[in-house]
Amino acid sequence: MPLYFGYGVDAGYLLVALAALVLGMAAQGYIKSTYRKWSRVDAGIVGTGADVARRMLAEGGASGVGITRVAGSLTDHYDPRDNRLHLSDDNYRGASVASVAVACHEAGHAIQAARGFFPYRVRTMLVPVVNIAEGSWMLVLLAGVMLSIGGLVQLAIVLFAVAVLFQLVTLPVEIDASRRAVAFLSSRGSGLDERGARAVLTAAALTYVAAALTSIMQLVYLLGRYGGRGDD
Questions:
Q1: What is the model's pTM?
Q2: How far is CA 81 from CA 78, 113, 158, in A?
Q3: Which one is catalytic: 59, 106, 134, 174?
Q4: Is 106 marked active-site?
């Protein structure tokens, strides 16, 4: 979101926003093309994505987790609030390498929750704080700059730093869930399943890496422009 302070668009912020746009589009394009490629390859495991995920949950000590369908494409996620995997229709009913890889990745998150995986617990604890920080930091920054209140500017940077911390904590959570999925598929399927799952899940992880990198760039920009100052 470009910043307007009465003097036109901030050029430095536009550069950061452009970099974020390019990285985000590249990451999204890569995961879509990789997913499309491996969605055409049948997995060497009996069952659909939902079936395979259920077997992984049972073996991982999370047999009480439910599985349901959710609208959209690549909208798959595990929701600890209802203790369910929400799989997009293609991955719920599909039996491709891509479908079982994504489904098992989400099962990996459920197993993390069941086993108390420490980074997952930290990420979960940060969620309420991050929801507040992400929804308020920009408004606080604008108010601080326009009113020349240094304390508000510093508060905005702290709030944004919390959001960046959340993204950094998310990385090991996502990587571990993918590791669990690949390990399960490599022990139950074929070498092709392992290779395809690794490719799909690596592409998915790059979207989180890209988001973290752009947020770090934005934080560095904010620190350089407003750190130690409340006015401009």
A1: 0.89
A2: 9, 11, 28
A3: 106
A4: yes
